[in-house]
Structures are given as structure tokens and as C-alpha cells.
From TrEMBL:
The gene is recQ. NCBIfam families: recQ, recQ_fam. Residues 26-195 form the Helicase ATP-binding domain. GO terms for molecular function: 3'-5' DNA helicase activity; ATP binding; DNA binding; four-way junction helicase activity; hydrolase activity; metal ion binding. This is DNA helicase RecQ. It catalyses: Couples ATP hydrolysis with the unwinding of duplex DNA by translocating in the 3'-5' direction. Keywords: ATP-binding, DNA damage, DNA recombination, DNA repair, DNA-binding, Helicase, Hydrolase, Isomerase, Metal-binding, Nucleotide-binding, Zinc. Pfam families: DEAD (PF00270), Helicase_C (PF00271), HRDC (PF00570), RecQ_Zn_bind (PF16124), RQC (PF09382).
Length: 515
């Protein structure tokens, strides 16, 4: 069975060997077991359903939320000699009829459909009368309420499958599943625990870095100038920000494209192609860009602002270095980014998800303030045990000595307690720094007022963010998030735990090592 799979890999895709995890997933699927495949972006998930499909009779159905990319995916398959087709809202009724006619006549090996199609009962019934060996569910985290991109139509998949006389084998695929998302996918699709394949989340060729409070424009310009022959993506949080970074780079003579949902489809395709064909060095984009984009030589991904959660971050940053060569993922953080994301979350339609989204945002903020290995932080977030630090991220290579800040920490924690544990970090920082603004009037009598002078409010604020990332302080999310002392923090208060922090000035911003 695997012999044939290997031949297909060579014949249609031109590769000699499978990557980690692919072989096991393909074997499991070919044995008819419903399977969940969790692999990082760029890990090679597509062949995990394409190869079983090519090794079997009938048409494999691929459910994918990436409507705008279906055509590209299908074109690529066709150019490799694989008969594939798609059905989504971009087709006319007669095109859909023709596509279904081809499918009925056994001319199509892979049929891509948008999840919303599943809401059409007669369409589902029609599918159930076909010979379908496999149903692939791409971006399977969309089925879970705990995923970052919940799509209600995904819930219909199990109903669809129950329509068939001979049940197709399911293969669910995702890059971004936390343990609770995995549990959810498995229970909703009735996948056994032993049929879950998770391959390493760490991407050894990526080095991560967070820079706090740098002059972003200056940094980005200098960075790009230092790597004139390397291609990169710059992600910004809003359309407006994409436009301004784009203009700034254009003015400095950088060959640059832009991409966001406010542009017409024609413009977007044009800009995307300029980037894919190496006509420009850089693309500045919102998170609308990148899904399914397969450009392997992206050497760096810079986040001009912090994204809203770790899933998005890793997915976007993971577009660097798909060819396995060393690449950088840099996040430029400033505290305004947190407010921007808070605002965007607050605009979201599904109010019930807001507390959940805010919690995810906090984990992202913590990433920006941790002093531990960044690669390990990410991988652990996705539920994988880490045996060693990466040795190459901004924190692993930070050589500043660690200073004992236990006493300062105790001062912060006691101030939080004195303030009744019901205020946010900005006002707490103002109190500790002895600020003279109106907001702190009520706290001037506290013994902790001004206790961290001569630190500025900004410095104290950063210290508090560090303590949150260290889990000594916890955040109660909400429109006005408040901070309180965690169980671990209490150990510091009673002198049972020490706190070490790399102090002195921020690490030097080294852009390029001398050649
Ligand atoms: P994912 O969907 O997991 O993000 P893709 O399926 O798009 O990733 O694959 C990423 C890239 O890796 C593609 O260019 C693909 O052709 C390539 N690839 C997949 N499997 C192999 C393999 N066994 N050997 C070499 N390259 C592979």
C-alpha cells in the first residue's frame, strides 16, 4: 500500500520521500480509519489526503474554508496532471452542473467545496450518492468553538457523512490545534485518540524574536536594507496600518506590494502575484494574506503589530522558511497593539466569544514579555512537551545577566493587594511610580504609593507585564482588565520564591551579524 503511495508522491509531486508524519497519516487513512492530522503550516498536510485519493477509486471531497484559494489549489493539482475541481459561490449554476456532471462520470479525483455548501440539503444528498472514499476536512479547527476561527457550517459535516451507505473515511487537518481544540474535533467527528497524529510543532529553522518599544519604521527600513536580496512579509493589524507601512517603504525605494481586504480582488491578485513572482521584495499585508500561499523562500516575517492570538501568530510567522532554510520571525511590540486588538475583538459579532478571545489575547501579550525560550513558549502552547530550549531565539541569545528582582516584585504585588486587586496595570504602575495625575488621587495615602520611584510609569508597566508573563500576577479579562496576585505570586509575597529578570537596557537591536 505504501509502496504505491510512494510512487504517487514521486509521479505526481516529484518528491522522493515523505516528510515526518505524512507516511503514518496516509497509511492510517488508507486503512480506512478516520484520522486527525495536526501539522505545522508548511508541514505538507495536503498530500496526506491527495495521495490516498490518488490511490483509490472514486472522488475525494475536500471541505475547505479558503474559498478565494480553491481555484489556485485546483489549478496546481491540474498542472500536476491530477483531475480536480471546485464548487463555490464564484461559479454559475451551469458551471456547477457541469462540474457535478464530470464528478458523476468519474472524471474528478478531488472535489473542493466550501463548508457553506453543506447547508444545501439536496447538494449533500447528491454527494452521498457518489462513490466517495474520503472526505478531507481542511482547517479542521474551524469545527471547534475553541478554535480561533469557528465556522458553524463545519458542524454539519457529521450529518453529511451519515447520509452515505458506505461511510467515507474522514481525514481532518489543521495546523493550529490546542489540546481542547483537538478534543473537540475528535468528539465532533468521532475520531479515536489513537488516530490523532501530531507532528512536531517546533520549526527548527525559524528563530523568533520580540522587540519591545523600538522605533518600528526605522527598524523595518534598516532591516530590509540589510537584506536587499531576501524576501519577506510584513504583517500589520489593520488596513490603515498596511497602507502607511506600504507608503513608508515605497518612499524609501523598497520594491513592495500590499494586500488587504479593502482592495478589489483584481488588485489583490495582482499584488500577490508580484510577490509570488519575486517582482517585489516585500509584501505588507493584513492577516487576509497568506492562507494557502506556497512561497517557499520567504526569509523573514515581521509583525509590525502584535496579532490577536498565538494561533494566528504561529500561522503567519510560519510562512517564513518553508524551504527549511534559516529564517527570522520578528514581532515588534508596543502596548498600543494590545489596545488595537482589544478594540478589534470588541467589534466582533459574536459577543459570547469575547471573554474567550480576550484570554487568548493575554497569552499573546505574555509571549511578548516572557524571558523564556520563545520557541518553547509556542510549542508548549500547542500542548507539546519541550525537552530543550531552541538556543537561537531572541531570549535564548540574550546575554544580559539576570538580576534578582524579588524585592521589587514584592512591592508590586503588595501594591496590587492594597489597591483591592480590582484595578488595571496602567493605574497600578502610576501608583507605584508615584505619578501625579488625577487618576491616582485616591491612592496617594497608600504606603506603596511611589514605592518604585525613580522608575517611570512606563518602566513599571513593563515590569508588571513581565510579572504577568511569569504568572505571578493574573489578569481578569473584561472591558477594563484588572490584575490580581496569583497562587505563584503569593509564594513570592511570603518569601518562598525568588524572581530573576534580565534588566539593564533592552537588548541591543542587532539586525545583521557581520558577514
Ligand atoms: P500545509 O498545508 O501543511 O501548510 P502544504 O501541503 O501546502 O503544507 O505543503 C507545503 C509545501 O511542502 C508544498 O510546497 C508541498 O509541495 C511541499 N511538500 C509536501 N510534501 C513534501 C515531501 N514529502 N517532500 C518535499 N516537499 C513536500
Amino acid at each position: 500500500m505504501l509502496q504505491q503511495a510512494r510512487q504517487v508522491l514521486k509521479q505526481y509531486f516529484g518528491y522522493d520521500s515523505f516528510r515526518i508524519g505524512q507516511e503514518q497519516v496516509i497509511q492510517n487513512v488508507l486503512e480506512g480509519r478516520d484520522t486527525l492530522c495536526v501539522m505545522p503550516t508548511g508541514g505538507g498536510k495536503s498530500v496526506c489526503y491527495q495521495i490516498p485519493s490518488l490511490c483509490s477509486d472514486g472522488t475525494t471531497i475536500v471541505i475547505s474554508p479558503l474559498i478565494s484559494l480553491m481555484k489556485d489549489q485546483v489549478d496546481i493539482l491540474r498542472s500536476n496532471g491530477i483531475p480536480a475541481a471546485f464548487i463555490n459561490s464564484s461559479l454559475t449554476y451551469s458551471q456547477i452542473d457541469q462540474t457535478m456532471e464530470d464528478v458523476r462520470n468519474g472524471l474528478t479525483k478531488l472535489l473542493y467545496i466550501a463548508p457553506e455548501r453543506l447547508e444545501n440539503e439536496s447538494f449533500c444528498k447528491e454527494l452521498s450518492q457518489l462513490n466517495v472514499p474520503f472526505v478531507a476536512i481542511d482547517e479542521a479547527h474551524c469545527i471547534s468553538q475553541w478554535g480561533h476561527d469557528f465556522r458553524p457550517s463545519y458542524r454539519i459535516i457529521s450529518n453529511l457523512v451519515s447520509l452515505w451507505n458506505k461511510k467515507p473515511t474522514l481525514i481532518a487537518l489543521t495546523a493550529t490545534a490546542t489540546p481542547s481544540v483537538i478534543d473537540d474535533i475528535c468528539s465532533l467527528l468521532a475520531i479515536d485518540e489513537e488516530d490523532v497524529y501530531i507532528t512536531g510543532f517546533s520549526r527548527e529553522n525559524l528563530s523568533f524574536k520580540v522587540l519591545v518599544g523600538v522605533d518600528k519604521d526605522k527598524y523595518v527600513k534598516k532591516y530590509i536594507q540589510s537584506y536587499p536580496n531576501e524576501t519577506g512579509i510584513i504583517y500589520a493589524a489593520t488596513r490603515k496600518s498596511v497602507e502607511s507601512v506600504y507608503e513608508m517603504l515605497l518612499k524609501s525605494g523598497v520594491r513592495v506590494a500590499k494586500y488587504h481586504a479593502g482592495m478589489t480582488e483584481t488588485e489583490r491578485t495582482k499584488e500577490q502575484n508580484r510577490f509570488l513572482n519575486d517582482e517585489v521584495q516585500i509584501i505588507v499585508a493584513t492577516n487576509a494574506f497568506g492562507m494557502g500561499i506556497n512561497k517557499t523562500n520567504v526569509r523573514f516575517v515581521i509583525h509590525y503589530q502584535m496579532p490577536r492570538n498565538m494561533e494566528s501568530y504561529y500561522q503567519e510567522a510560519g510562512r517564513a522558511g518553508r524551504d527549511g532554510l534559516p529564517s527570522e520571525c520578528i514581532l515588534l511590540y508596543s502596548s498600543v497593539d494590545e489596545q488595537t486588538q482589544r478594540f478589534l475583538i470588541d467589534q466582533s459579532l459574536d459577543r459570547s466569544r469575547i471573554p474567550f478571545e480576550l484570554k487568548k489575547l493575554q497569552t499573546m501579550v505574555d509571549y511578548c514579555h516572557t524571558q523564556h525560550c520563545l520557541q518553547a513558549y509556542i510549542v508548549e502552547y500547542f500542548g507539546e512537551q519541550v525537552s530543550q530550549e531552541c538556543g537561537q531565539c531572541g531570549n535564548c541569545t540574550d546575554e544580559r545577566p539576570k538580576t534578582d528582582v524579588t524585592e521589587e516584585t514584592q512591592k508590586v504585588l503588595s501594591c496590587v493587594v492594597r489597591m483591592g486587586q480590582k484595578f488595571g496595570k496602567t493605574i497600578t504602575a502610576d501608583v507605584l511610580a508615584g505619578a501625579r495625575n488625577k487618576k491616582v488621587v485616591d491612592f496617594k495615602h497608600l504606603s506603596t504609593y511611589g514605592i518604585l520611584k525613580p522608575m517611570s510609569s512606563k518602566e513599571v508597566s513593563r515590569f508588571i507585564e513581565f510579572l504577568i508573563a511569569e504568572k505571578l500576577l493574573s489578569v481578569k479579562p473584561g472591558q477594563y482588565p484588572t490584575i490580581y496576585v496569583s497562587e505563584k505570586g503569593k509564594e513570592v509575597l511570603i518569601g518562598d520564591r525568588k524572581v530573576l529578570r534580565r534588566l539593564s537596557e533592552e537588548p541591543k537591536v542587532v539586525i545583521k551579524d557581520d558577514p
